[in-house]
Amino acid sequence: MEDFESPVRTIGHIYDGKEVVNRHTCDVKERNLTAFNIDYLMMGVGGDDSWGARTHPEYTIPAKNYEYAFRIVPIQKNDDPDKLGRVKIQNK
Question: Do the beta carbons of residue 32 and residue 25 sit within 8 Å?
């Protein structure tokens, strides 16, 4: 994630003597690495302006304990991903 966003988050452009850098996909260096994030929920990105307005309540995530599961399986050429995605995961 550090390839895409500055290591510090701030409203200003200088934080602790370092310039805050906004990066773009063209700034990412090629690596011998594949990474992905699996998120359960995603909160809205902001309110009605870019000056710190809070996210509207209907787009926030309430503070509580959440649980979810995911499964990663190889898919073969003739597999039906939609059908495989509907197979119920058994709790262990």
Answer: no
d(CA 59, CA 53): 13
Kindly list the distances between the CA atom of residue 88 and the CA atoms of 40, 42, 72, in Å, as whole numbers in the listed order.
17, 23, 13
40: alpha, beta or left? (left if phi > 0; alpha if psi -120 to 50): alpha
- Asked if 19 and 6 count as a contact pair (C-beta separation under 8 A), the reply is no
Query: Is a pLDDT exceeding 90 seen at residue 26?
Result: no
Q: What is the reported pTM?
A: 0.42
Q: Percent of the chain at pLDDT above 90?
A: 9
